[in-house]
Amino acid sequence: MVGAFEQALLAAMIFVIMLGMGASLTPRDFYLALRRPYALGIGVVSQYGFMPFIGFLMTIALGLPTPIALGLLIVSCMPGGTTSNIFTYFSKGNLALSVLMTVTSTVFGVILIPIVLLVYASALDLEIPRENIIATLVILLVPVGIGMTMRRLNANAGAVTEFLGSALALFFIAFIAISWVPRNWQFLLTTAPSTYFVAIMLGVFGISIGYIFAKSLKLHPRNARTVALETGIQNAPLAIAIIALTFPGEEQQPIMAVGALYSLFIVMTSTLVTLIFRRANTAAEQKIPDSLL
Amino acid sequence: MADTERPWTAFYGPDMRADIETASYRNIGDLVRSISDTHGKSPAFTACMPNGMNGTLTFAQVDEMSDAFAVYLREVAGLTKGDRVALQMPNCLSFPVAAFGILKAGCVLVNVNPLYTAEEMARQFQDAEPHALVIIDMFADKIPAATKGHPIPNIIVTRVAEFLPTLPRGIIGLVQKYWDKSVKPIEFSHIRFAEALTAGRAHREKDRIEVDAYHQSIEPDDIACLQYTGGTTGTAKGAMLTHKNLIINMEQSLEMIPTICRGEEVALTALPMYHIFAFTVNLLAFYRLGSRNILIPSPRPLTNLKRAFENYKITWMSGVNTLFNGLNNEQWFLDTPPKHLKLSSAGGMALQADVARRFEEITGKPVLQGYGLTETSPVLSFNPIGKIRDGSIGVPVPSTVLRCVDDNGHPVPQGERGEIAAKGPQVMAGYWKKPAETAEVLKDGWFMTGDIGVMDADGYFTIVDRKKDMVVVSGFNVYPNEVEDCLATHPGIFESAVIGVPDPSTGEAVKAFVVRTDKSLTETEIRAYCKEHLTAYKVPKLVEFRDELPKSNVGKILRKDLRSKAMSAQAAE
Which parts pass through the membrane (chain A) (predicted)? Predict the structure, then answer.
């Protein structure tokens, strides 16, 4: 569904965006997130506990046809995606925590994805492409590392990179949403409403439950926002890669449907959630009188 | 050492001078030149934007640029010694360059609050009659209204990102113009600050001008600043602060913080330098020390300070209660308190004991509270390091005598309340063009502060009440008369009285008691009306409607009755 050139372009864009995200961070941010690994643990539980379960419940409740159900389960078992970092940044969440959560869930994914899928889809023999997992980590960590180094060496270079990265990120979000529709027009017309429903609601439920869970465990609002986005936003491209590797040609299309639709709608859902989170953040900000201050 | 008139000298540190009578420099121009020669290539000022974009000027650059500006003022704009130059901008790199340039040129610096409304600006301009104005572009749209009828001949416009490297400066410029639209097009004749410097440099080269010649003629008792304060009556009055006042006060303040070292400090300047506290203590004193000064254009919201704390090893900061209290409640500040901080200084308004305690818990370093007024350059007293007393404004700084006096000006016995009177080399020369008002506050060499205080046996002072009716909102004086005058112009208001009530975040808040003629008038409408005519901090936070106001038998509204009622109501809650 996405050509090689487009994939390379997207990867390059994500690289530059993550460079900018990295430039907003300091080693201390990571140290703080690691010093209190509570939030990180909550994130892993949300990611591999709640998400697959939400997917499973929806397949039961809606009685989805097997290929759609399979596609949904695979997407719901994925680790957090890189876009979760971008949305966390714009939501004024804890970006260092988000990056760490993405890394953790991706690394743990090598073991946890097959186990969870085994539990919910019983004895599925899926091929987990390690190179994709490694690529995800590289495309995440290398630019973040470079960005942090840039900021350390020169605060202005860091701030300019962060500015350009975030501007590109806005463009990227719009680009994904706008370019997706014409490319998949035919597919959109032939897809069943129940598939739409699960593709949209997986993200909505994931973000909501992640948020409620984190709040109920008294995480700081910044961290709760982070856990919510991290839980709801899955690494959909990884799901698509797994399906492409595991299933023969003609079987692929219906299994991929949820993943493809999800990638579109999660951008919209997350944008909306980000706007809500930003508003909440502004409302919670301290009011400082404008006289001496 | 302990002297009977000044028991507090016993609490001075072992190496502390008890007297500083003569200034170490004849004028601020000499000071800037001498310090710049010593620290040449070290960073003097770094402006840090909320996103971390920044620009730095070294001591040598500040010296050269302020020279160029001095030449511009004298040779291009044609100003002479004693001419007033108004400066209206938030903290940014242009501030020290312009301020030092004005003072080197022998002109008088008039600090103007950039948040002032056009009406408030007009009043200050009418009184000070500035020959030139250096203003930030964000507020230049108020100029036509503020100078109507009394034009200012030279208007120099700067911007918040002035002197930043090209790329960040460009980005900030674009964001201000197209994104938050904080900079509007300027439609009156003006010159850009950078162009003024270029013109000054050209003249200096061509005519071989020695800038030192300008300030060699400045005597210690010549006026350096007109620092405006509303005083008791509410009409703006310019306190004439001399070069000697400011230089000595800078040294008196430094004497109280001996752990601060020459050339090693990184100071955080989040308070605006147009306010006398940051002007003397941050700008002058830390320049004198050869410190790097991190300038924050706006500390609102407080997350604007995050990058500054992350990117620079802040060793000292000044603040007001509102700022310390705000930082105490910021999660990022609690997570990563500044590691290199040595101490903080508080002034401007009463520092609440629990705010100070909490800040000390977080940073592990003390907050020293001081006290002073615009008229005293401003520092009169400070808590000495290691000998802080909660709730006290500390002991008088060197060469300064404070005493509590009764209404006839006679000292009251120790331990009794009285108006604080101050004597010292930092006391102003008087109010600009206001001999009557000057005579009211300067009596036999004593400056009457209008604050009621009490001195303990050791010579520590505590403020109990204010004699004046003025309300202090986050360190800024609000004069009830001015707010009442504004309310009086509203057609739906019959009369009003304004008092200050305690407020947990701003120290005091403005409360208006209003008698309406239009019964449908709401609190929101009144506040909106005031907002059009007054700076935000003067706008009443609380409005209470009354059928009548308490009055004396000659018809004067009794604010004190309203105040005591408000107090007892609050105590009952």
Answer: 6-26, 38-62, 68-90, 97-121, 133-151, 163-182, 194-214, 226-249, 255-277
pLDDT tens, position by position, B334-375: 999 999 999 999 988 778 788 899 999 999 999 999 999 999
Instruction: DSSP letter for B319, please.
Output: E
**pLDDT, tens digit, for every residue of B464-479?**
766 767 788 888 878 7
Claim to verify: residue B558 and residue B482 sit in the same structural domain: yes
ipTM greater than 0.90:
no
- The minimal CB distance from B335 to the residues A32, A158, A163 is found for A32
What is the C-alpha to C-alpha distance for residues B27 and B422, in angstroms, rounded to an integer? 23
Query: Which candidate in B332, B335, B477 is best for mutational testing of the A interface (most A CBs within 10 A)?
Result: B335
For residue B10, tell me if it sits in a domain. no
Any domain includes B526? yes
Chain A CB within 8 Å of residue B220 CB: no
Indicate the SS3 state at residue A142: helix
- Mutation target among B167, B298, B321, B478 for the A interface, most CBs of A within 10 A: B167
DSSP summary character for residue B410: P
B409 in contact with chain A, both atoms CB, cutoff 8 A: no
CA B229 to chain CA centroid, nearest Å:
10
CATH of the domain at B481: 3.30.300.30
Q: How many domains does chain B have?
A: 3
Question: Residue B165 carries which side chain, given as an amino acid letter?
Answer: P
Are A288 and B331 a contacting pair at CB < 8 A? no
What whole-number distance in Å separates Cα of residue B217 and Cα of residue B30?
Answer: 11
Residue B551 pairs in a beta bridge with B557
Concatenating the DSSP letter of every residue in B35-59 gives HHHHHTTSEEEEEE-TTS-EEEEEH
Distance between CA atoms of residues B134 and B143, nearest Å: 11
- Asked if residues B448 and B406 have their Cβ atoms less than 8 Å apart, the reply is no
Residue B507 and residue B438 in one domain: no
Place of tokens 């100071």: B267
Q: How far is CA B387 from CA B5, B138, B257, in A?
A: 20, 44, 12
Identify which of A1-5, A176-180, B234-238 has the greatest average pLDDT. A176-180
Which domains does chain A show, CATH number per domain? 4-275 (1.20.1530.20)
User: Could you give the 3-state DSSP secondary structure of residue B377?
Assistant: coil
The helix (H) or strand (E) run that includes residue B562 is: helix B559-572
